[in-house]
Write a structure and sequence with these properties.
The structure holds two protein chains of two kinds.
Chain A (H helix, E strand, L loop, with lengths): L1 H28 L4 H34 L7 H8 L7 H35 L12 H16 L12 H28 L3 H24 L3 H12 L10 H17 L1 H7 L3 H6 L4 H23 L5 H13 L4 H23 L10 H18 L8
Helix pairs in contact in A: 1-14, 2-4, 2-14, 3-4, 4-9, 4-12, 4-13, 4-14, 5-6, 5-7, 5-12, 6-7, 6-12, 9-12, 13-14, 13-15, 14-15
Chain B lengths: L5 E14 L2 E15 L3 E5 L6 H8 L7 E6 L2 E2 L5 H7 E4 L11 H6 L14 H13 L15 H14 L4 E5 L7 H17 L3 E5 L3 H7 L2 E6 L3 E5 L1 H6 L2 H5 L5 E4 L4 E4 L6 E6 L1 H13 L3 E3 L7 E7 L2 E6 L4 E4 L2 H10 L1
Parallel strand pairs in B: 3-8, 3-9, 6-7, 7-8, 13-14, 13-15
Antiparallel strand pairs in B: 1-2, 1-4, 4-5, 9-10, 11-12, 15-16, 16-17
Helix pairs in contact in B: 4-5, 5-6
Classes of the chains: A mainly alpha, B alpha/beta.
Amino acid sequence: MIYYIFILQLYFLHFQHLYSDIHSYFCADIGRSQSFILIRHKSSGMRKTLFLIISLLIILFFGLNLTWGSVEIPLRSIINILTLSGEEKSSWEYIILYSRLPQAITATLAGAALACSGLLLQTIFNNPLAGPSILGVDSGAGLGVALTMMFFGGTIGGIAGLTTVSGYFAIIISAFIGSGVILAAIIFFSTIIKSNLMLLITGIMIGYLTSALVSILNFFSSEKTVFAYTIWGMGDFSSVSLNMLPVFGGLIFAGLILALLLIKPLNGILLGERYAENLGVNVRLLRVLIFLSTGILTAVTTAFCGPVSFIGLAVPHVARMMFKTSNNKVLMPATILCGSAICLLCNLASNCPGYSYTIPLNAITALIGAPVIIYVIITQRSLKAN
Amino acid sequence: MSKSAIVLNAQHIDIGYLKGKTVQKLVHSDISFTLKSGELTSLIGPNGAGKSTLIRTISGSQPVISGSITINGKEINQYKRADLSRLISLVLTDRGYIDSLRVREVVALGRHPYTGFFGRLTSEDESIINRAMRDTGIYEKKDSFVSDLSDGEKQKTMIAKALTQESDIIILDEPTSFLDIISRIEINNLLRKLAKENNKTILLSTHDLEQALISSDKLLLLSKENGITEGVPEDLIFNGQLDKLFPHETINFDLKAGSFVMCNNNTKTIFISGNDSLSHWVENMIRRYGFIRSSDNSNSVCCIDIIDKNHFTVKIKDESLKEISSFVMLKNIIEEL
């Protein structure tokens, strides 16, 4: 909830401007064309409504994430546990506070982080098909994680070992270095390769390379490590324990704030790099900052939740389709919120309410994400807004 | 700014690509030219002559290798990036990622150098944006998505963006290359109007010689061999500079047609007489079949006399006079020659 209020605040910080823009626009044009003002009004009203709907969906899915699970806990008890009032079964308390709540928060944050980094990459590469998983950024993080697991002999999350804070930091830092190296390589290639398509293919190849290295590492690893790595590779939101949440959340907030501060130059670069340069955007600095933000967001999420595919690639398109704009003033908060909502939904689906099984998260995200991407490619011609 | 003051002055500049500090590829050396306010200047040259390199250099996105470029009397590399973006605005062929932005949002991006950290627009910004959209005739479309615009309207949108940058200089890289003839004329007129009414200094590179000759105050001819030649279009035509621009044996600049035409020195000539506009098109036809128009009928292979569009008389050497009634028949006769 704190997170949610926080995002809303950031959102209002930006949107005060947007709305006052539109407001002053009304005033300047009053009397010119009455019907026209109505259209304006409608479109800004529609955006407000959409933001409201997504916010409500996040709250709904968050609630469902708390209530649905293999153990049935009545709603009243859940509320009692969350508000710390009344006596409830200690096992229920444990499930809610130590399992479902952290998992729901993790899903919310991870969704926001991945979606946001996808949007950043799509904007800077000027390419609708860029995303952390496509460009191999998260497999880079994966390689970093695999190396750390090899050398420290531990595993990630609650499975075994490395549950200490320092262990987590080792993994986060190695994931960050791994994704950073890949991002740097892709940025390097983007200066040589002008064609966006070729750049994407290069990214995919880099992804294969790192995956191959991971396979080789696994070959020399113990069975336990391979198992842990495979489980980690399926992705899940349950690995962040309650005491790790502040670290996880703090880092993701840092990445998100950085991204939100870049909205103005990001809009400049929509026109293309040379135009942006002409508008006074320091493109090189912008690249470094985007690199930093994407690196943090992807590395932290990947380190904790595994390489969650398709969220970064697909969510910005979902937001773009809903809000019909690529203006980052609207699109970035929309993407962040959509990411949270979709990840909460995915987590819900992967937990298979009523059963004790868990479907691998990546299967769910692919089921949702792949059709979106295919739709985008089919209708791509130029990603028409309407 | 007073009318026709020198805004941009390039003196003895070398342009090309640097790798580190060493020159990797020198495109041109020792070229000089000026751009004046209130003037529309067209940069013309064959492909590969270095037009884009020149444009990148004078817009500050690529360093000058040697020599000096001054804008309003100050060296270009003395300006900060932010200041430069208020002095020069660009319209490029880059397509960007703006299809799902509205026209107004794109035009508003031109205020980027003036707005604060969050890009908030003041009411003054708003009125500048609206004025730019009106000046370029795109105001009616301000709420359309860029993807729904025609190519000409997209170009107008980018020109409006350049106007909101409120720069003295507007540089356009082939602004009419994707456009149909009507939009080409429209854009050229618009640019001319902006130069004259808003006292802008406008430089555009183009392959559209015909429009450049009609609308430019000045031409910059750029070629690998001769570097840069500047002058009023008519001067460049009559001192043969334009002909030198595209050195080609059989393609020359035709003074009368105002464009480059294929001509062969040993082609046979045809004498044409009659109505002015019709004779122009008869000339167009005979040229297609490898003849040129001659001014005397003594050594021509054929004489065509035009009475009206359905009535020609053709006299081929050593043959009797033929009367024909259409261009098709004329074509058949010329093909036979």
